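Bench log, entry 3. Co-assembly request; chain sequences pasted below exactly as received.
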Amino acid sequence: MKNISTPLSKNVIEDLKAGEEILLSGYLYTARDVAHSRLCKLIKDGKPLPFDIKDQVFYFVGPTPPRPGYVIGSAGPTTSYRMDEYSPILIEHGLSGMIGKGNRSSEVIDAMIKYKAVYFAAIGGAGALIARCIKEATIVCYEDLGPEAIRKILVVDMPLIVAIDCYGNNLYKGR
Amino acid sequence: MKNIKYEDLVGKIEDLILQTSYNLPSDVYEAIKKSKDTEESTLGKSILEKLLINADIARDEKLPICQDTGSAVFFVEIGRKTNLQDIELSKAIYEATANAYRKGYLRSSIVIDPVYNRKNSGDNTPPIIHYELTETDYIKIQFAAKGGGAENMSGLAMLKPLDGEDGVVNFVCELVKKAYGNPCPPIVIGIGIGGNFEYSCYLAKKALLREIGQKNPDPDYARLEEKILDAVNSLGIGPQGLGGRVTALAVHILTYPCHIASLPVAVNLNCHVSRHGYIII
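Structure output for the full assembly:
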């Protein structure tokens, strides 16, 4: 199985093919619906983002609170289509990878092809298993959103599947 | 029902919520295990295996099986011959929900207003409670932690009265096809047929509480459940929507008589983390 690390450079992305299982290590940012909408509003208003998204990877997740002695609780992916409205804008501004579950819209896939980005599927409902790969978690911004705040997390060998590659090959082929 | 103290009742409901959130029910665990043999896709098989490992970790470490610890849904059967005295049952369920989600490190996933003030309530309250009066001398409290991803893919059709079996099968298959990987397949499909607009939805949700492997007592509907399961598992959606045979683990139907002009069919989907449990008091 291929091991890859964040930040994701364009030549690493070009090498990933839909259907491949990979292990991802490095820092990721967690973001769900409201966080996406806030970031996109900043971009539209011409304001700076709270952190640099260039070559970064967003993980669509709202974890459970950690037990004492743990860095995070269960942390599996949420359904990605709810982020479809926002992902193309973020990809245009440098985001290079997304982790979630379920298919993406044609607008997202077009942006992924145009700016070279990749979409990984994590196993939905395997939050306890995925939590084991997370070694650090700190809130970056939007703490008011509780589980939906943006967190910077460090993952080691997170098992993922390349669901849609930067050539538009899509594992959700039934759609 | 023996006399029960309010605090003890709250404690029992708290425990029900926690057990259901950390321990995948054995019927679901066994169904996933069995489904590995029918799955033809290598990726699908590997996903099913990881779901079992995930369930083992969750049980051993008291971690929620899934980070979406759901909205707290209760079906409460109150025996007419029980004596609740001055116990406020709704209050007990509300309090148990707040306690369990806070103390058990479960995610609070409820916002206090659906449109204008989507602020997290902080303790996953309020729960959703359905009451039913029965002719027994006990109280049965059934709990379902209902995740948002699968719930969002649910649907209702007010079919024409003569659309019959084919109408039902087609509606369910179209809905599952449209949902594709979103509800976290392999899914459990709860179907409520008959009643009316709201009652069919209630039945669809209640149908999800049945143990996997328990046959529908009505032979016609037992056959229809098999037919829908076969049809859905021929769609090629597979585990997580990444291709394969195992799209659904089970189809459960509940029915009720209905109006001459109608054939309501409600479908409520559950992800593979099909969390259900009950206590009897």
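DSSP finds eight helices and eight strands in chain B. Chain B touches chain A through 46 residues (CB under 8 Å).
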